[in-house]
Amino acid sequence: MKRLIQSIPAGMKLYYAVLVGWMLTTAMHIPDGYLSPVTCIVMFALVLPFWARGVKKLREKLNAKTAPLVALLAAFSFVIMMFNVPLPGGTTAHAVGGALIAIILGPEIATIAVSIALLIQAVFFGDGGILSFGANCFNMAVVLPYVSYAIYHAITKNVTITSKRRLWASALGAWAGLTVAAFFAAVEFGIQPALFHTADGTPLYAPYPLSVSIPAMVIPHALIASVVEALVTVAVVAYLLRANKPALQINQEAQAPAEVGGFARWRPLWITLGVLIVISPLGLLAPGTAWGEWGTEQFASLGLKFIPTGLASLSSLWSAPLPDYDLPALGNTNIGYILSAAVGIILIAIIAWLFTFLVTTGKKSSNNIAASQGK
Amino acid sequence: MAQNSFVESTLVEINRTLEQSVFAEQIAREDGLLQRFDPRAKLIGILLLLIAVGSTHQLWVLGVFFVIVLLSAVLSKIPLWTFVKRVCLLVLLFTSLIALPALFLTPGPALWTLPGAVIITRTGAATAAFLLLRVTTSISLATLLILTTPWNDVLKAMGILHLPDVIVLILAMTYRYIHLLLHEANDMFTARKSRLLRPLPRAQERQLLGATGGVLLSKSLSLSSEVYLAMQSRGYHHYPRTLDDFQFHWWDGLMLIISLAVLLSVLFLA
What we know:
- The complex is a heterodimer of chains A (375) and B (270).
- Chain A has 15 helices and two strands.
- Chain A has 375 residues and is mainly α.
- In chain A, strand 1 and strand 2 form a beta hairpin.
- In chain A, helix 2 runs parallel beside helix 10 and helix 7 runs antiparallel to helix 8.
- The longest helix of chain A has 42 residues.
- The radius of gyration of chain A is 25 Å and the shape is globular.
- Chain B is mainly alpha-helical.
- Chain B folds into two domains: 96 residues, no CATH class; 145 residues, no CATH class.
- Helices cover 73% and strands 3% of the residues of chain B.
- Chain B has a two-stranded antiparallel sheet.
- The longest helix of chain B has 32 residues.
- Chain B is flat.
- The model of chain B has no long low-confidence stretch (mean pLDDT 80).
- The chains are: A mainly alpha (375), B mainly alpha (270).
């Protein structure tokens, strides 16, 4: 099989890689059919906490004015996605606007606004799939605004509202945000052929492995689409600096009493964990068992003539509910793997939470008592 | 160069979107097959079928689905050519170009050798066919829903998916103001275009883009506070209400049962 791939002329491979890359730059709106339903469900599960967080913020932090504000900004995001941005060389491309809204309203509200724009695009204009809506939201309404905002916020933390630093901070944030979003989209595409194929190896969904999809998505995005996102963001921020400075301060006013909650503080960790869950079946591609984690039946294949008696007697003491991270009833190792990863992390989280709960409740109540006595 | 200009291409895109949504509302008012179903049943039914299309491992199942979708489009008085054009243009422009390299790059037994020792593999052909058929069928299913249901009904139907009411409210307002902002952007670009004698240099185009985007954003922001005041003066009290006059008929139930049966048979038989 390797020979077959090698038989393709190198020039053609390059040509197609460029072609695929070019087409994929407009593919941030993943249509239905590229991702398996299982991936779609996992992506919905990954976005859900961000939606919940956005809705909570909508209801609590800001006042009742928020509904029309978010509606108008979602509409704005929809319209800005239609602007054909002129690029050097006579081509044009589109922006998402997620970075801009994150800079103005904060990433939580941006998640809701961009998700709504994406929903209207998917349901009413057929742009982006309905099953893949979760994946599209994860890439464009979660990764893009959060990454952009983190960078923008880090650079402009102690800067006056009129500072020119806001310009390149917003450009850099938008560029990085969309490039990272493209990387996530590439991972979603790239895990499909290894995870979902027929018995003879025919990929059922997006056909290219990670080794093709990541460079094909990330390189053209970094060079074109992310540059466009940065251009639009910086152009509008520059205009607002000239003509409407209060707009750039909306989020700062609203965020004054912001208290970093348990989830927000560990947000990067949660995101990384989510990604790791999704890509966990990659481990199936590697042959063999992790060193030192052999089961009793694998000792023979390692060349061992006998099984240590202690191990033999102990190994039957506990039979795991998910042996080898697989649910045989599902009939699909990969789903079993993803589920196992998710179940494992949820279990660990519950145990950790119980532990900290038990340890800290005593402390808190004693603190409260001390405080009330102090009064 | 003139056709390529940023102002013109954006104008074309904006008008195409406005035209599309007007066209959809027109078809949705026709008296066809799918228009008679309860929007809630239609939404759930199409979701179930989308999952079925997404899950099947058989090419012929995808083919059968596509033919049925085309038949229902005809029975729902959607002009077939417009429908096919709208669906296939998207797929041809985009998915077929992505599927093409898979013919050669997917490892597998050779199916056909092109001149120049380029080999199309059997698995490559199968995977390209899967991608094309699946995307085409999914898009056409979603398009059926869009074209046969007025927007307000889809929105109300989404209530059964247990969307938070604040989200339903925002969705309704967003759709309304998308049209307003599109007209707004259209006016701004038309005004600019009518004062142009020749295409702008690229640098100026980018400046124009920033200014138009910025004005649009400022307008959105000030409009949002006006809308809020208007809502308050009409008695909005933090709780959106909708009129619910859907009627669930026996044929809606039948459609749901059939969709579910199709999904289950795809999941467990094919």
